[in-house]
Amino acid sequence: MSELSNRLSGPAAAPLAHRLRGAAIADRIGPRIAALFVISVILVLGLLPIARIILAAIAPGLVFDLSIIGEQWTRASTLRAMWNTLDTAFFGAVIALLIGGPFAFAVAMTNMPTRRSLGFLLLLPLIIAPQVTALSWLHMTGPSSTLLNMLGIAPAPGTPNPILGRQGIILLFGVQHAPIVFITLRAGLIGLPGDLIEAARASGATPLRAFYTIVLPLMRPWIAGAGALAFVSGIGNFGIPALLGLPVNYLTLPTLIYRQMSSFGPGVLPQMASLSVLIGVLALFGILAQSLAMRGRAPRYGQGRVANISLGKWCYPAAGLAWVLLTVVLLMPALALLTTSLVPAFGVPLTWQTMTFANFEEVILRQASTIRAFQNSAMLAGAAALILAAVAIPIAIVLERFSTPSRRILQGIAELPYALPGIVLAIACILLFLRPLPLIGSLYATAWIILIAYLMRFLTLAMKPVANAVTRIPLEFDEAAATCGASPLRRVVTITAPLAAPAAAAAALVVFMSAFNELTVSALLWSSRNETLGVVLFSLQEAGLGPQAAAIAVATVVVVVALLAVLDRLANRLPQGVLPWR
Fold first, then answer.
1. What angle do CA 488, 491, 497 make, to 5 degrees?
2. Which contiguous run of DSSP H or E holds residue 569?
3. 0.90 exceeded by the pTM?
4. N or C: which end of the chain has fewer CB within 10 A?
C-alpha cells in the first residue's frame, strides 16, 4: 500500500494527473462539439433552403420588395393554378379517406382474413413514385390500352383518355395518398382499448353500432389529421399532375412552376420563388390543421387488449371486396403497365407473336440516356442513403441528450424540406447553388446539386427509425461503459452504433427507395448527362415512347418491391413501428 501511495504521490503521478485532466476536458468539450455538429447539420440541411427561398421571394437583390409576391399571386394564371391545386388536393384527400379509412379499420380492428397482405399491398403507392402510378393508369385506360384491347373492352379509337385532366388527378391523388390515411388511422385504432368495444357488445350493440358510437367519435381527430396529411401531399404532388394535367393544359402550382422554368430558365427565379412560397404557405396551413387536429386526439387508456370487432359471417365477403378494390386500383394498372412494356409500339395487340422484351433491352442495355439515368439514380440514391444513414446515428445520439423542447424544435426543422413540396426545395437549391461558391464554384447543372437536395429532403426519413432505436437502448449499457473508463466516443462506437445499425440499415433502404425514382425535386435540377429515372420516364412519355417509359417503370417497381421484401425480412431486428405494415 505504501509503495502504491509513493507511486501516486511521486514523480510518476504528474503524467497520470495530466492524462486524467485531459480526459476530463475531452469529456466536457466532446459533447459540445457533437452538439454543435448536429445543430449545424440540421440548420444547413433543414433551415437554409427554406430561408433562402423566402429571402428571394420578399427581398430579391437583397432589397425588401413585396410587390413581386403581390404581382405573382394575383395573376390570372396563378389564381387558376391555385384553385386547381386546392380543388384536386381537397377532393383527392376525400377519396384517400374513403379508401384508406376502411382498410385501416379492417386491418387494425377486425378478424378479416389476409389482413396483413392487404395492408402491405395498400402501402405500395406510397413507395412507388407518383409518375409511375400515373403512367400505369394512363396505360390502363384509353383506346391505346394494351390490356383493354386484349380483353376486347377498349374505347373506340380517337376517344379521349378519361384519366386525363381534373377527374383523373383527383382519383389518383386518392389512390396515391390512401396509404398515408391508412398509416395514420391504423396508429390511432391500435391504441383504442378493447374494453370499450366489449362493453358495448355486452350491452347488445351490433358491430356497426359499436363502430359508430365508440370508434368513430374517438377517431375524429385522427381522421381530420389523416385528411390534412393527404391534402398537404396533394398540394406538392408533381408527378401525377405533370402526366395527367400538362397534356390537356390543366395546371396546378407545381406544374405551372415547371412550365415557367422549362420555358424561361433561371431568369424567372424571383417570380418562381414567390410561387414556391405560395405553395409552401398552402402546405403549412394543411400541416397546421393536421397538428391542431392531432392535438385533440383521443387519450390513451393504458395497456390492454387492442380493440377488436368480429365481422362474423361478413369476414370473407369483406376480404373479397377488399381484394376486388385493390385489384382495380393497384393490380390492374400494374398489369397494364407490364403489358404495354411488352409490345413493340402503341396500338399493337399483345399476342405470343408480338410479345417482345426489346423495350427492356433498349432502356437497360442500348439507350445511352436511360442507361445513364439508371446509373445516376442508383449512385445518387445510394450515396444519399449511405450518407444519411451514417449521419443519422450521431444525430440521434446527440439529440437524445437535448431537452425535450430543443429536440422537438430541431426535429421540426429537419422535417421542413420533406414536409414542404419538393418543387419548393428544388427552387431553393437553384437559388443556393446557381452562383459560384468559394473554392467549389457553381453546383448548378451538376449531379452534386441533386445529391444535396436528396440529403435535405430525406434527412428526416433517416433520422426517425434511428432515433426510435436509440431511445430503446438501455441507459445502463452506457453507464456501465462509462464506469469502466470508456470515453464518450468509444461508447458510441462500441455500444450505441452497433445496436442502432439495423435501424440505420432500414433507414438507408427507405431513403434509397424514395430517391431512386424521385421526380418532383430532380425535374428542375437535372442537366445533360445527369438525368434521373423519373426525368427520363417523364421525357419518354412526353415524346410518345410509352412502351419504353413503361419498361423503365416496371424496372423501378421491381427494384422497390425487392427492397420492400428485404425490409420485411429485417423486421425482427428492427424497432417496433419502423415498418408500418408490421
1. 120
2. helix 546-569
3. no
4. N
